[in-house]
Amino acid sequence: MKRLIDIMMEEKRDVLLSVLFGVLAGLTSVALFGLSGFMISKSALQPPLYIITIMTALLKLFGAAKAGSRYAERYVSHRATFTILSNLRVSFYEKLEPLAPRIFGKYRSGDLLARIVGDVETLQNFFLRVFYPPLVLVIVFLSTVLFTMFYSVWIALVLLAGLLFTGFIIPGLLSLKQRNVMRGVRAKRAQLSTETTELLYGFRDLKLHQKLDKKQGQLLEMANSYAGEQEKEGVQAAASQSLNAAAALFVSFMVLVLGAYFVTIGELDGLLLAMLVMISLTVFDNAVPMALFPAHFEETRQASSRLFSVVDEPAPAPKKQRLDEERAFSIELKNVTFTYPGEERPALQDVSFKLPAGTKTAIVGPSGSGKSTVLQLLLDMYAVEHGDLFIGETSIRDIQSESIWSQTNVMLQANHFFYGTIKDNLQIAREDVTDEEMKEALRVVELPFSLDDPVLEGAENVSGGEKQRLALARVLLKRARIWLLDEPSSSLDVLTEGRMFNHLLKAAEKDTLLLISHRLTGLEKMDQIIVMENGRIAEAGSFGELMAKQGYFYELKQMERQVIE
């Protein structure tokens, strides 16, 4: 909550104005109805016309002031709320972005979506319903109590007791019951969002395996459960508001009874009784909404807790070094050991190798041997636990991630394509890329697309091989001096793979290239081949050296030949 308040106080001016206009609206409302009550009583005694005229003018003045201040309060408070939400989203994203992609190993995408969207939207209630309304309530109530003391100390004490009960004691007791209800709503919403996301992502597989009805039934049960929790929340809120309203009316009734008693014994002027009753009825208009304060407080507390827990991981220390010089850097791993968060088995164990600048290296091995993990560490997606990794002569611990990404041509196993056109998806390679360059890249990768051809969400209208070649075209357009390629041809046929491989070697002729592959064809042109197994380097050398050794690589090559034959 402290972090939420810190973000909110960035809009200190609007916060103060909201409180000011809220207090003015509350006080003018009390003054308007109090004067109305006094005017009714006074009119019964047929006072001079100028008295009625003055009181009527004051009523119009208070009415206009009430409407104006209430409008100003709503305008400023909502403007502050939207600005605070904007600041909150930006602040949250700035903390979240450095944690990607490892954050996905801790949270499911549906749960993250529920937090980023739902919980942030919930926090709009913090300022509007939790922070400044109690301040306005206390100021207006205390001002009213002080005014009432000039006429009757006992009635002022009754109003003060009413403030304590309707503003603090009753909401405080209700908050204990509300907490469990709100926790259930949050948990059910996160579960529903997560399972809905799973259904949408896995719709095709569920349909093919005839499990769609079962999954839909489970989702419907979760939706009904979530609706039930919301119903409990609504019933609880309605009951709380009714209880607070009843308490407020009881206090006003006590003011009427006590005031009538003081009039009969001569301790209170009868002309003031209607004014005091009207004041008590009006001032509690600000207290009745406090019945919902526990619900909004608990809701925002849990939302802020869920939201900030995502980014509670310690931020990495800022890095200062940049790879500004556009050249082919060397790459070196020294005794690197790494384990993914939440796992016990190390993905890499004491891995050491060096890629001299301008050389071509392939890392091969069976699935799960740690090949792609090397690439993740080189891209600074995860931090090296033990050992060190160097790009050029600089440790990756000191290099800014953005600098690494700007100096590398990266092609991953799963490449994302945005909804739009072929041109839109190629332009992200480089800001100054021209249409002619994009057309030439499409020609090189043998794609019969035009720049205006559409790309659907998830590139559903593009085949697996076309996706890889489109990703390759994007890589060719970037023109960085370090190439990091993870299974760039796994969906291509052998002939197309050979042609694409030749294009890659030609484009990266003077650059440092690292190829991750489980296929062993075309590796004769590599300067170095590193064979990995179970997170360790099994052997390394040139293609000829490894074949002559007749070790693990030789066995893999023989098995591949048998499969092809």
Automatic annotation (TrEMBL):
GO terms for cellular component: plasma membrane. The keyword DNA-binding does not apply. SMART domains: AAA. One of its GO terms (molecular function) is ABC-type transporter activity. It is a multi-pass membrane protein. The chain crosses the membrane at residues 15-41, 47-65, 126-147, 153-176, 245-265. Residues 16-285 form the ABC transmembrane type-1 domain. Its main location: membrane. Keywords: ATP-binding, Cell membrane, Membrane, Nucleotide-binding, Transmembrane, Transmembrane helix, Transport. InterPro entries: AAA+_ATPase (IPR003593), ABC1_TM_dom (IPR011527), ABC1_TM_sf (IPR036640), ABC_CydC/D (IPR014223), ABC_transporter-like_ATP-bd (IPR003439), ABC_transporter-like_CS (IPR017871), P-loop_NTPase (IPR027417), Type_1_exporter (IPR039421). Residues 331-559 form the ABC transporter domain. One of its GO terms (biological process) is glutathione transmembrane transport. It is found in: Cell membrane. It holds the Pfam family ABC_membrane. NCBIfam families: CydC (TIGR02868). This is ATP-binding cassette, subfamily C, CydC. It comes from Domibacillus enclensis.
